[in-house]
Design goal:
The chain has one domain: LmbE-like (Rossmann fold, 3-Layer(aba) Sandwich). Helices cover about 35% and strands about 15% of the residues. The chain has helices at about 15-20, 30-35, 50-65, 90-105, 130-140, 155-175, 205-215, 220-225, 240-245; strands at about 40-45, 70-75, 115-120, 145-150, 175-180, 200-205, 250. It has a five-stranded parallel β-sheet, with helices on both faces. The chain has a two-stranded antiparallel ribbon with strand order 6-7. Helix 3 (about 50-65) crosses helix 7 (about 205-215). This is PIG-L family deacetylase. Its EC number is 3.5.1.-.
């Protein structure tokens, strides 16, 4: 995950995820309605852990339906602690993939059959490589795939670039795209009008599924620990973990 501080001036306690009245009006949708029988599911994560934040619950549900699964990790997330001697990029480039393996194990993903593509792109630098990124993603897609990626207006440069690149790649190969907001839920409530509520669908999660998702998020030890020596707060802020307790996930169709 490449997460900015959630304590900056833009984000107060009344954020979209815990105050927007539209949330209660979002129609539910079942995983079987999102993904036709036999279709392959492709999750595209800009940074390691975005797949857990965005759709860790949905991933569990789709896995039980025995859909073929492919995860594309665009970056290795090694730029998450700039200037840190405790978490330099050289260490994170090794640790973050290990954390991802453990997180997927905690979700109950079938690691023996999960196809996992690591892009090796540099995080915080995707905007200038959008065309190349579209071609890279398209290379691993097939007609009829159902693709889940970050929303192209999520409020984070990498998330938005991957969202646009995913949309372009899907159009090239005739795959179906669903977009996943992550940062957008932490905008101030007054900015909720920007969310395309008419496109939103709610995937309901039971208590056990939510618990496994939270357990998976805690596999990212590097993101739970900042670097106090340089004033760097944890990337996985408490407010993000609180939102992950909600008994649903939102997809944009």
């Amino acid at each position: 995950m490449k997460l900015a501080s959630l304590s900056d001036g833009r984000r107060g306690p009344e954020q979209i995820w815990n105050s927007a009245p539209q949330l209660a009006q979002i129609p539910p949708i079942s995983p079987s309605s999102l993904v036709p029988p036999g279709a392959r599911v492709v999750i595209i994560a800009p940074h390691p852990g975005d797949e857990v934040l965005a759709c860790g619950g949905l991933l569990q549900l789709l896995s039980t339906l025995e859909h073929p699964l492919q995860l594309i990790s665009i970056t290795d997330g090694s730029a998450s602690h700039p200037g840190s001697d405790v978490w330099p990029a050289s260490r994170l480039s090794v640790v973050r993939p290990q954390e991802s393996v453990e997180a997927l194990r905690r979700l109950g993903m079938p690691l023996h059959s999960l196809k996992w593509i690591r892009g090796g792109f540099c995080d915080d630098a995707l905007a200038g490589r959008e065309a190349q990124l579209s071609q890279f993603i398209a290379r691993y897609l097939q007609p009829g795939d159902v693709v889940f990626s970050t929303w192209r207006n999520d409020g984070n440069d990498d998330h938005e670039t991957v969202g646009r690149a995913s949309a372009n790649a899907c159009s090239l190969v005739s795959a179906r795209l669903y977009e996943l907001p992550i940062w957008a839920w932490h905008w101030p409530a007054r900015e909720g009008a920007i969310i395309p509520w008419q496109r939103a669908r709610k995937v309901r999660l039971d208590t056990w599924t939510v618990a496994r998702k939270l357990h998976a998020a805690h596999a990212y030890a590097s993101q739970l620990a900042g670097d106090p020596q340089i004033g760097l707060a944890p990337m996985l802020a408490q407010v993000l973990l609180e939102r992950m307790r909600e008994p649903y996930e939102i997809v944009l169709s």
